[in-house]
Amino acid sequence: MTEWELRTARSVYVVAESEAGLELRHWGDPARRREPPVARRSPFESPADAAPLELTAAGTRHAQVSELLVQGPDGVDGALLGLVPGSVAAEGDGTALRALLRAADAGLEVELHVRTSAAHDVVERWAVLRSVRTTGDLQLTRAFGAAWNVPVGPGARVAQLVGAWSREFTPVETDLAAGQLVIGSRQGITSHLHSPVVALTPRDGGGGEAYGVALAWSGSWRMLIDAVPFREVVRVSGGPDDETGVVTLAPGQEFETPHLLGAWSPDGMAGLARTWRAYQRGVLARGTGVEHRPVVYNSWYATRFDVRVEHQLALADVAAGVGAEVFVVDDGWFTGRTSDRAGLGDWYADREKFPDGLAPLAKGVLERGMRFGLWVEPEAVNPDSDLYRAHPGWVYRAGERPLTTMRNQYVLDLGRPEVEEWAAGTLRRLLTEHPITYLKWDMNRAVSDGGRPGDPRGRAWSVQHTRAYHRLMALLREEFPHVTVEACAGGGGRVDNAVLALSDVVWPSDETGPRDRLAIQHGFLSAYPPSVMSSWVTDEPDRLDTAPVSAEFRFVVAMAGVLGIGADPLAWDAAARTRARELVALYREVREVVHTGVVTRHGDPRDAVYAVQYTGPDRVVLLVWARPGAGPVRVPLAGLDPAARYRVPGRIPSEVLDGGELSEAGVPVPFTLAADCDVVVLDRVR
Ligand code: DGJ
Questions:
Q1: What separation in Å is there between the alpha carbon of 288 and the centre of ligand 1?
Q2: Peptide bond preceding 196: is omega within 30 degrees of 0, i.e. cis?
Q3: What pLDDT score does 648 carry?
Q4: Residue-number span of the structural domain to which 273 is assigned
Q5: What is the 3-state secondary structure (H, E, C) of 578-644?
Q6: Taking a C-beta distance cutoff of 8 angstroms, is the pair 200, 152 a contact?
Q7: Has residue 421 been placed in a domain?
Q8: Ligand 1 centre and the CA of 444: distance in Å?
Q9: Which one in 258, 272, 571, 685 has a CA-CA gap of 20 to 30 Å to 143?
Q10: Is position 316 within any domain?
Q11: Domain end (from 231, 257, 277)
């Protein structure tokens, strides 16, 4: 059987031809490669049920779950897929592969794609599904792009990130002995409830090889983790949610599935997190420079909908004084927006609040030495808006069912070309008429209850919506590369690897209470990098963990990612403003290492002492948070060269510590910044 081997930085991904398609031979450490176990097949299964196929369809498999559910126009369900002989082709210097499967019975062709990167341990996979019929539509009630045969079985320990609005990215683990774990979103946005990423390790212990699978999709989705009893691989697949949409292929049409990413690490869960973050930083991000992760001042918490030029400029004065680099006017600036009940859709400066338009505010912000940024929510509309009055047919409607409002808004049907064109035109107008270099794109309701009665492809509305969202985000990148884009959906509702490839930073949660935020950030950092983690200092209280904290604590929480300020600095006295300026200056000194260094999380935010370490080639930054009364501690550092020597800059007499000692005895944390937090900086001296 011919095999193809794709290399990543430290692993191999090996596939081989088989009768029913392409199957996995090995994924992981090349040194641990062995003959694949022959799955014992019961008389109740077909060979395709037992084979670790890369992707298959019901009709090819008979007993086990498959990635494609196909319905033909003649009432026949399923597809008998086979590999087209000679179709497997290596591409891109051994880092890519393409194979063609065909189901003559259904009139379906499936192009499988695999792509690796020689610098990272991540494999990217997707499929192009094409109707080769001459008549009749194919309905794809499930259109997943790949299955990953994760060699950790039987069963697996599955780590996930779960949550709710304002409680996103909470880590949970499931001991999945057998059966299926199904996670997803039916909300048209990605990640309030579940993040589309899972980590798998063997049930009998981690520490060794760990595998991750992520779905790069920003709409409704579903992932299936399928632990077939006694099988050595656990199958992980995913794609568009198959409860809320159907993809229809007319003759000759094709559909490219959302991409799935598979990550590997020889160093357990901590290593897997490093694999993800390095890939997102190195491949998905357009860069990690500070030009697209400036210190933001955002006026939302200070003003809510009460946006007035003079007040905004007063805020801008203080914001510039404490070191903000961009001033972002959040919700409330556009026509009729006095509350969340009106105005969405009317993207012109409100004439009462801004009699001379946005120009005086933008000019005032620039004069204060900051960039100017704006908030938009292009996918939604209030019933009370000129846009809705002019185009009541532009929103999703499920037939005669009454429209549902959430946060008093409807969802615009971006799947209609004229609506996407309107959204593109609105963004172009705003970004060319005003000197905007920072745009926060928000979405504050579920993209639910869609449909387009009469349109035969309208049942794919949810997929079409997400595609249009991605195209609009790509437009921003291509036509306005100088604009920093912050992705947000009512907090962390839309955080996934597709968004990371199209934005610069993401807003992980509307929870900005410092201890609760720290817990959210801890989970976030297990799958995503600090360079995209927007985090503001606000005056908001904690809801869950209400132990009191110092002002410094709030700043150090924000320093763990991309620091911003969302408080009302006009309410700060002179001493508080001076302290804020010092803390922003400290952040600016360490941010390069925070955004580009290797991240290690020490402990859990619920512990007496919790720390996050950022290790760059020449500098180590340790952010530490403590419970009241924790006292001086030492934190053993990770990943240092034992022979390297480090010193604390500016400390006199200069104390030199070696990597071995810092790793074993730990670095002393004096809590000089505040009794409940500290920032320890170590510079390598040789
Ligand atoms: C939800 C966002 O997460 C907040 O930061 C803020 O922009 C509000 N929407 C505004 O409506």
A1: 25
A2: no
A3: 84
A4: 3-277
A5: HHHHHHHHHHHHHHHHHHHCEEEEECCCCCCEEEEEEECCCEEEEEEEECCCCCCEEECCCCCCCCC
A6: yes
A7: no
A8: 8
A9: 272
A10: no
A11: 277
Q: Note whether residue 230 is domain-resident.
A: yes
Residue 442 has, within 13 A of its CA and on its CB side, a CA count of 20
What does the pLDDT read at residue 652? 61
Ligand 1 geometric centre to CA of 295 (Å): 18
CATH number, domain of 645, equals 2.60.40.1180
| Cα–ligand 1 centroid distance for 401 (angstroms) | 29
Whether 300 is in the pocket of ligand 1, judged by its Cβ within 6 Å, is yes
Question: What is the whole-number distance in angstroms between the Cα of residue 631 and the centre of ligand 1?
Answer: 37
The reply to whether ligand 1 has any atom less than 6 angstroms from the CB of 375 is yes
Q: Residue 150's domain is classified under what CATH number?
A: 2.70.98.60
Domain boundary among 277, 311, 329: 277
pLDDT value of residue 584? 98
Find out whether the beta carbon of 331 lies less than 6 Å from any atom of ligand 1. Answer: yes
Which ligand 1 atom sits nearest the alpha carbon of residue 509? 3
- What is the pLDDT at residue 459? 85
pLDDT score at 631: 80
Ligand 1 atom 10: residue of nearest CA: 331
Compute the distance between CA of residue 459 and CA of residue 453 in angstroms, rounded to an integer: 9
Q: What Rg do the C-alpha atoms of the chain give, in angstroms?
A: 26
Mark the ranges of the chain whose per-residue pLDDT is less than 50: none
- Assess if residue 576 is contained within a domain: no
Question: Which tokens is 217 given?
Answer: 């999709």
